[in-house]
Design goal:
Blueprint (H helix, E strand, L loop, with lengths): L3 E7 L9 E7 L4 E5 L12 H6 L15 E3 L8 E3 L2 H19 L4 E5 L6 H5 L1 H8 L2 E3 L7 H11 L16 E5 L3 H4 L1 H10 L3 E5 L5 H5 L2 E3 L6 H14 L5 H7 E2 L1 H10 L2 H8 L3 H13 L2 E5 L9 H8 L1 H5 L9 E3 L11 H5 L10 E2 L4 H5 L7 E5 L3 H4 L3 H8 L5 E6 L4 H4 L3 E4 L8 E3 L6 E5 L12 H11 L11 H11 L5 H7 L1 E3 L20 E2 L3 H5 L19 E4 L15 H7 L3 E4 L1 H7 L6 E5 L4 E8 L7 E3 L36 E6 L2
Parallel strand pairs: 6-7, 6-15, 7-14, 8-9, 8-12, 9-10, 11-21, 12-13, 15-16, 16-17, 22-26, 23-25
Antiparallel strand pairs: 1-2, 2-3, 4-5, 4-17, 18-19, 19-20, 22-27, 23-26, 24-25, 24-27
Helix pairs in contact: 2-21, 5-14, 9-11, 9-12, 9-13, 9-14, 12-13
The structure holds ligand MGD (2 copies), iron/sulfur cluster and molybdenum atom.
One ligand MGD binds next to helix 18 and strand 16.
Length: 673
């Protein structure tokens, strides 16, 4: 008899890769969480951060929250006593019902994001909040809402991307404002490297994917729309645009073309910082086609991020890069495209009345107002690390008036502020489904271990809260197996068990071209270069050839993108990952360091009107002059300052969808005395 069993499951993190995992359980109890060698993406290796954390803190009861807990000390001190589930759910439900009767259900706010992207643990809790009538912080407003809004105006859809399998037929892959070497490590390592296409990266930072590319355009942050217009200028000049496609499938090109003609590379070079020759080269390579455009998330986290997206997304329209293999763009491949019905998952029909929503950028102001907010429930999210205006947020979370329930597998800065902390099971401990957002596949998340201590999956936690609240609607209590089978059937699979035996399946056996039928789900059925819907919402009808003003003298533009060692704020809980992270640094171009009289390794103070933070200085020409780079999402409580980079983030909104313009933060840097 074998002395080990292997369970194949899927990583459900907010990551393009959605790796297949093999959990090896030895008879003596030893567990190893490894990359599944048979999985097309992971090919036997997890990324560095998961390889450490999934075999470290995620298996360590001392690192986890394992029991429901109730606050005993002052708010924010993180002192709790363990209680039973029945007591926790009864007390929480009673408090919520009291708030509903005295202040209205809309004063109960919940906020959640992508701690897990699995479907039940990410979506099922909405059934409870719909029944309760709670208000919601718009999830995407902390991440990518501007890009979604822009693509919806133009293409009618933002979650229908290219099929990565069509890369075999692409002559060019243009990665614009994404850093696969950190945020999609297996696409960096395998998918990009194996494609014969020429690779172009457009990013202010020379990250490893940019360094490996055939061409890197290291533009100044927030100048992407100007660059896109200059590339279009070259395409028009060199007659590389597809006029037949434009005539038939787009509206507004005739209005746009005169503007493009004014936007020469000579005009764009000083604005973007990219030499004329490189703009021409990038346009020529892209224009040869077929070309894939990977629209990252970084470029839309700018004050004019919506406009940036509309301008960059003109490229495939102008060159007819659709409906053929190796052509198209990708922002995200969503679940709906595969047939997943989010209304089934989230049951919005359980809600009476309209849902109140705010942007994450308005969270502090809302929580500070007792008429608007009496309670907060945080799940799948760590706002105390990830959100802007950190000092004020921590202050309002410390207010005894605000009733706060936090649900997490780990004791985070956010759970430290809560009145009740509920232990979430990790993805290794329950069945679920993963709908990857890069590849057009579907994967099973299969229970490999028993939940640690008394931890429960999110969906079960909200069933218990619904029961304690005395609700009766059957949707609130549907069991996992029934919901998983229904979701599998929605995507054309037999049931969960059959998917689990395969691990991951491609939804379409053959690669599918993007917008194969050239029917765009916009009001006109065409690509709306000129958008009446955008104009009706107060935006320009056309994308604009604009760029953000450069920072005033002395100020630096601070970028804080994804770290290679963290998944947002996740994995800070693992001491070995913390060791890899080392001191929190900021990287400057040598010219700026010389101008400011700073040396490598100096302790510097980054400051602006929102806050200040001590950082260790690194000097490297991976960033252009005028730009500072510091990766996001340290746990504030692990630093002496009890703060991270978001202490400097005022929470400025993008032009569209009130989303986060986090990469527009400006700071001064001075040497610590
Ligand atoms: N400065 C700066 N700030 C940023 C960004 C930036 O670029 N710069 N990026 C922003 C972006 S893109 C995003 S998406 C946000 C992300 O910010 P958050 O959504 O706060 O992401 P995480 O920090 O990973 O928090 C997810 C939490 O979910 C928990 N979790 C994991 N699995 C489960 C589960 O099954 N159940 C429950 N209940 N919890 C679980 C994890 O332990 C973790 O604490 O941060 C934003 N903040
Ligand atoms: N390892 C790891 N992987 C992750 C995450 C993580 O925290 N760590 N987070 C996950 C989440 S929530 C998300 S949203 C994705 C994000 O993944 P990505 O789409 O890769 O987005 P970011 O990491 O925010 O930024 C990507 C790049 O945008 C660049 N950028 C910033 N401003 C501009 C600009 O004005 N123009 C251009 N062209 N580029 C700009 C940054 O320099 C950065 O290199 O990654 C996911 N994967
Ligand atoms: S975080 Fe991404 S790269 Fe790492 S194991 Fe999960 S899916 Fe793979
Ligand atoms: Mo994100």
């Amino acid at each position: 008899m074998s002395d080990k069993t292997i369970i194949r499951t899927t990583c459900p993190r907010d990551c393009y890769d959605a790796c297949g995992i093999a959990v090896v359980k030895r008879a003596d109890g030893l567990v190893k969480v490894l990359g599944d060698p048979e999985h097309a993406v992971s090919r036997g290796a997890l990324c560095g951060k998961c390889a450490i954390a999934y075999n470290g803190a995620w298996l360590d009861p001392k690192a986890r929250v394992t029991r429901p807990m109730k606050r005993v000390g002052p708010k924010g001190e993180g002192r709790f006593e363990a209680i039973g589930w029945d007591q926790a759910t009864a007390e929480i439900a009673a408090r919520l019902k009291d708030i509903v009767s005295r202040h209205g259900a809309e004063t109960i706010w919940h906020t959640h994001y992508t701690g897990t992207c699995s479907l039940l643990a990410g979506g099922f809790p909405q059934r409870f909040f719909n029944r309760l009538g709670a208000s919601e912080v718009d999830p995407d407003s902390i991440c990518n809402a501007a890009g979604h809004a822009a693509l919806q105006y133009m293409y009618g859809a933002s979650d229908v991307g290219f099929d990565p399998r069509t890369a075999k037929d692409a002559n060019c892959i243009l990665v614009w404002g994404a850093n696969p070497s950190a945020s999609a490590p297996h696409q960096h390592k395998h998918w990009l490297k194996e494609a014969k296409a020429k690779k172009i990266v457009i990013d202010p930072v020379r990250h490893p994917t940019a360094a490996d590319a055939d061409l890197h355009l290291q533009l100044f942050p927030g100048s992407d729309a100007a660059l896109a217009f200059a590339m279009l200028h070259v395409l028009v000049r060199e007659a590389r645009i597809d006029r037949a496609f434009l005539d038939k499938h787009t509206v507004g090109w005739a209005e746009l073309e005169p503007i493009i003609i004014r936007c020469s590379p000579d005009w764009a070079a000083p604005i973007t910082g990219i030499p004329v020759g490189k703009i021409e080269e990038a346009a020529t390579i892209y224009g040869e086609g077929p070309s894939l455009l990977w629209l990252g998330q970084g470029l839309q986290r700018q004050p004019t991020g919506g406009n940036v997206f509309r301008a960059v997304a003109l490229l495939p329209a102008a060159t007819g890069n659709f409906a053929k293999s190796g052509a198209g763009f990708l922002y995200l491949n969503g679940g709906a495209r595969r047939g997943i019905d989010s209304d089934y998952l989230e049951a919005p029909h359980l809600r009476h009345g309209k849902k109140r929503k705010i942007s994450h950028m308005d969270l502090v102001a809302t929580l500070s107002d007792a008429r608007k907010a009496q309670a907060l429930i945080t799940w799948n999210i760590n706002i105390a690390a990830s959100n802007p205006d950190q000092a004020r947020l921590h202050r309002v979370l410390r207010d005894e008036r605000l009733f706060h329930v936090a649900i997490d597998p780990f004791p985070t800065d956010t759970t430290d502020f809560a009145d009740y902390v509920l232990p979430a099971a990790s993805f290794l401990e329950f069945d679920d489904l993963v709908s990857p957002y890069f590849h057009l596949s579907m994967s099973a998340q299969v229970k490999a271990l028993e939940p640690m201590g008394e931890a429960l999956p999110n969906q079960e936690i909200f069933r218990r809260l619904a029961r304690a609240a005395g609700y009766a609607e059957p949707e609130l209590f549907e069991d996992d197996r029934s919901a998983l089978d229904t979701l599998c059937q929605q995507v054309g699979l037999k049931d969960f068990t059959s998917l689990a035996t395969k691990g991951t399946v491609d939804i379409w056996p053959e690669p599918v071209p993007q917008f194969a039928d050239l029917a765009f789900p916009t009001p006109s059925g065409k690509i709306e270069i000129a958008s009446e819907a955008a104009a009706a919402d107060g935006h320009p009808r056309l994308p604009q050839p604009i760029a953000d003003p450069r920072p005033r003298d002395g100020l630096l533009r601070l970028l804080s993108p994804a770290s290679v060692w963290l998944m947002n704020s996740s994995y800070n809980e693992d001491p070995k990952v913390a060791e890899k992270l080392g001191a929190e640094t900021v990287t400057l171009n040598p010219a700026d360091a010389a101008r400011l009289g700073l040396a490598d390794g100096d302790t510097v103070i980054a400051a602006n009107e929102t806050g200040r933070l001590e950082l260790r200085l690194g000097i490297a020409d991976i960033v252009p002059a005028g730009v500072a780079l510091s990766h996001k999402s340290r746990w504030p409580k692990l630093s002496r300052q009890r703060a991270n980079i978001n202490a400097l983030n005022p929470g400025r909104k993008t032009d569209m969808a009130e989303s986060s313009a986090v990469h527009s933060v400006e700071v001064t840097l001075t040497k610590k005395a």
